[in-house]
Write the structure tokens for this entry.
Amino acid sequence: MTGRRSFWGWGLEKDEPTNEQRQETAARLSKRFGRDVTAPPIPRIEDVTLRAPRTTPPASLREFTTSETYDRAWHSYGRSFRDVIRAVRGQFDNPPDVVAYPRTEAEVVATLEWCGEANLTAIPYGGGSSVVAGVEPPEGGGPSVSIDLSKLDQVLEIDATSRAARIQAGVLGPALEDQLRPHGFTLRHFPQSFEFSTLGGWIATRSGGHYATNHTHIDDFVESVRMVTPKGVWESRRLPGSGAGPSPDRMILGSEGTLGIITEAWMRIQGRPVFRASAGLTFDSWQAGYEAARHVVQAKLWPANCRLLDPVEAGSAAGLKGDEALLIIAFESADVPQDAFIREAVNIARAAGGRIDDSAIKISDGRNEEVGREGAVGAWRNSFITAPYSRNMTAGTGLVSDTFETSITWDRWPEFDRNIREAMNGALQRVCGGGSLSCRFTHVYTDGPAPYYSFSGMGRPGAELEMWAELKHAASDAVIANGGTITHHHAVGRDHMPWYREQRPPLFEAALRAAKEAVDPQGLLNPGILIG
Amino acid sequence: MTGRRSFWGWGLEKDEPTNEQRQETAARLSKRFGRDVTAPPIPRIEDVTLRAPRTTPPASLREFTTSETYDRAWHSYGRSFRDVIRAVRGQFDNPPDVVAYPRTEAEVVATLEWCGEANLTAIPYGGGSSVVAGVEPPEGGGPSVSIDLSKLDQVLEIDATSRAARIQAGVLGPALEDQLRPHGFTLRHFPQSFEFSTLGGWIATRSGGHYATNHTHIDDFVESVRMVTPKGVWESRRLPGSGAGPSPDRMILGSEGTLGIITEAWMRIQGRPVFRASAGLTFDSWQAGYEAARHVVQAKLWPANCRLLDPVEAGSAAGLKGDEALLIIAFESADVPQDAFIREAVNIARAAGGRIDDSAIKISDGRNEEVGREGAVGAWRNSFITAPYSRNMTAGTGLVSDTFETSITWDRWPEFDRNIREAMNGALQRVCGGGSLSCRFTHVYTDGPAPYYSFSGMGRPGAELEMWAELKHAASDAVIANGGTITHHHAVGRDHMPWYREQRPPLFEAALRAAKEAVDPQGLLNPGILIG
């Protein structure tokens, strides 16, 4: 990563759109929606005035802390729709008072000690890609410190024999892969936020990654974790597997910065794939596609990719006609040819109504060539990677767009999908006078899919936040009422708390609160998140 | 299961050996060890006198509770070496005062309420197969109630679409499979204790099952859990996957009855395998064998079986000559032919020095025939299944034999194995004047194996417990000092507590204790286990 991060949008400053580009986008939206759309000018940091810092770090911390406007503005938000709207408006009402950039674990400890002494809210900050207000200071809270782990960005140790590496928590995805690559290894955890999210963030939020089946969450790649808490350091043993009590790591996974600050982890890595196989099958209907996905995953061939796009998404993101669903199946391996696997999976999908020419099944066994970079499969891949940037273009034009994701068992899925679509189409009609809604499966399990819905509608400029809130509320209500989880891999943060409360067992809440009090008795860490 | 359980040994009463059979075994041991070995007579329940019950259930619970000697003696112990030695001696110094057999969840709740009102220790009891004193009342404790879940033995619901089933926690392995079989499904969780262990016990202890790679522990098959605690019922949502906070189920998995009594769970089930492939490869050395196992698992073909026996175990349990290691690889599937998989795995193992004739690779694709039931592989399988019964024959003869199991990363493994063997051979020499030691891998991970050591030596009749304690102590010290886990799938119980304390992060202990206090403020449930 070269260059400074955009304080308001996705990516680096140098990737920010110009006002001219935003106006061109607005003109396209004008045409599409038949009304006059304009893009407000992008904010300039020199125009931003923040509340004066309410606390000052002690001299011993000055070298790695700052209260500069740029740093505080940048660390005010994650990168959700709501975040970018607020930021593009130059609205930073509740910034952290101080941003710390500890360069060592000792400096993390020192920062947290200061927070304890001065009773400051401590907010662990990885890449800042949260879409659930997970790195935002609590409203109405006291002084807060955003603890940015980005200086802890090294792969410290590689154990080639065990295929594991000790990695600092603040490393961003690309830098992590850059450090593993020379050794022939990869973590292969590629969330959509990959460029601007960190290992520690993935662990804290149970990030969902590259693999669409089997080991989908970062959870399964964690061998041990080291975490700084207000009561000291918590570190688990490196173990391939254990049955000694409940897993200590599984209490950290998903703790969203409420129990401590993850500083490093031993992660399971792997050889870089050289055997690859990929196929994109089309289906006459969404239903035929998801039945096929179910059959494929239940056969336990464990494809690396098994993503299903509904006809709307296959049209908008993969260039199909809009009346066919697309199932992308891919296998990869560092060691073993994958042709037998893809043929079995394609057979299953064809038997369920999928169409693909034999010549369109791409196999590059042993030649270490990328496959799945052309045609509909490749188009979808590009669309997936660039999606987070598109919001920089449209923020503030009145466009209201977001995604929500969940998981549900297969038996409930058809009715779940109908109910979600009914609720969301109704809400889009009510709030925006209509809009678009699409769905894909990001991950699939033997017992159910993880559907990911995208919606958008044209709202009124200046009213985007209220309109978004109504749509998000409708989506969350529908997900929880129909038996889903409020998040499969986007985390809870502040945005999902009301529904998370409904979802989780109340006694688990009590147990988790007690666990937090044991390691963070002052409640310094991310108050209001996970624990009400 | 037809017939009453043996109150002292493994299995049913009708499977108990006769005194004559035990004397024959003793005669064989006499010959083997060159000294006079006798087998004390097996205990008779009519000769057992227990401490008078220190509490009496209220009238409302009388229908499903008892203080009969048989029930109290049977529920005094699990089935570890130490347990069977004590039981065969008729020594039941600290029996539970009452055994409850709740027939409904409401009766579980009522039993636990009574325990709360009368301040009684509550001990959840599944199949009683614990080998770590996990179902034994605490020494010096007050009155205790063993809560036997065996009447909750039904598969309540099968969701064929999602391949999941709602199952009561008290069902034993065979009865569970019997209820799934007519629907074409199976859980395929086959710990060595399968005949006399329950679903709830597997979940509470993070049981390790059939699959040697990938989804090895019961953990991965749990979709949701329902548990009765002193503060009420804790039930998670049925979800194929979730990223909403730390997993509630993962806090229950491994909780060993300290947080509540599991009453039912939704489990991921699967189609019954009809495609099978199996191969047993021999290796010149233990080292060549474990390098091969590492390569096979790191290729991520995910064989159902990938068990490696060291030369001693391959000799004693699989009928080989005693100078070769044996790697058993097997694949199975309900849906997909497995020949391509076994061929890739065999290629990898051969490249690492493994020997097998092509004709010895058994593939029964689609014919639903069992494979791997003949030759060395079949011999080992029989030995595995019948092993728990052998202790009924030798208990009290002076023979000291036990197993311990762990996991360790591959980089440390060779030195770990050397150190464990050195420690155990030294201890066997010291304690028994020598003995036998062998090892197998029960499960293998990309980052390390789960080795399982078996040891035995001839001790002095009457001194078995002290001699066993010294050997167990040496094993546990060596495992922990060399970086392993005190248990991969046998649980912590009372026996492993000193080493579990060393292994786990102290702050995790604090968090777990706090979590327990939140759901069990009186500390009724399994006091002394997991939480010191």
